[in-house]
Amino acid sequence: MNLPRLALAYLRAQGLGTVLNIVLMALGVAAITVVLLFTHQVEDRFLRDAKGIDLVVGAKGSPLQLVLSSVYHLDLVQYATPLAAAMLPRQIASVPSLMGASPAFESARLMQLVGVGTDALQAFAWIMIVAAGLSIFVALLSALRQRRYDLAIMRTLGASRGKVTGVVLMEGLLLGVAGAVAGIVLGHAMTAVLGTWLRDARQIDVTGAVFLPAELGLFALAVVVGVVGALVPALSAYRTEVAETLARG
């Protein structure tokens, strides 16, 4: 008995329910993928651009704006000695019309501000993934009740309890894999669209053509959620009594 082929046949038979489970999982995975790609590239850009620049000097105003903006025709200062790093900011502060700002510090502060929104989006995405797991659980449990007779027939034809259980677990695995793959692909596509919009607006350069090791962990977690969602239905399939089920018809 080919478990993957049989599981695919059952998933195809569920039709819309299967599609909805995959879409729900994919949306959660896609949102987290966008957050991972965006924050990684923004942080990398800030660190790369600020490398070798110890101090930005410009007109009085917001230190963050001073670092980010070029409208002030800023001078970029690199400290020659540790003593200069301690003394120069004080000297600049003593001039009423000038101020100094550290790119590293202001970039970190900006990422903290951006992080509030990305953390909220990531939390919402995880809720969607958990909801996808619950949806898989409900869908498989409902489908199992409808096909108990089929499973009993499989048992009479020689299928063991383990194989019957494996079919249900395979369904959860396939739903998790499909949702994870679709979500990661969608996440990269959304990041590419976001990058195009940011480039058109002359903002930071972001691309979807980057793959992060963290995405492998995200893929694995999505698959685990799919399998966990199938555990209870699989246990129910394992406990199916052949004689009793066939007698009910």
Fill in the keyword field for this structure.
single chain, mainly alpha, 2 domains, 3-stranded antiparallel β-sheet
Radius of gyration: 28 Å
Number of domains: 2
Please provide the ordered H/E string of secondary-structure elements. HHEHEHEHHHHHH
Task: Give the end-to-end Cα distance, rounded to a whole number of Å.
Answer: 23 Å
Strand elements, count: 3
Low-pLDDT stretches are 70-75
Walk me through this protein's architecture:
- Helix 1 (3-14) crosses helix 7 (161-200), helix 7 (161-200) packs antiparallel against helix 8 (214-229) and helix 7 (161-200) packs antiparallel against helix 9.
- This protein has two domains: 3-48 and 116-248, no CATH class; 55-101, no CATH class.
- It has helices at residues 3-14, 16-50, 63-68, 82-93, 103-146, 148-156, 161-200, 214-229, 231-238, 242-248; strands at residues 55-59, 75-77, 98-101.
- The relative contact order is 0.18.
- It is 76% helix and 5% strand.
- By secondary structure, the protein is mostly helical.
- It has a three-stranded antiparallel beta sheet.
Topology summary:
Layout: H1 3-14, H2 16-50, E1 55-59, H3 63-68, E2 75-77, H4 82-93, E3 98-101, H5 103-146, H6 148-156, H7 161-200, H8 214-229, H9 231-238, H10 242-248
Antiparallel strand pairs: 1-2, 1-3
Write a brief caption for the model.
With 249 residues, the protein is mainly alpha-helical. It is built from ten helices and three strands, in the order ααβαβαβαααααα. It has a three-stranded antiparallel beta sheet.
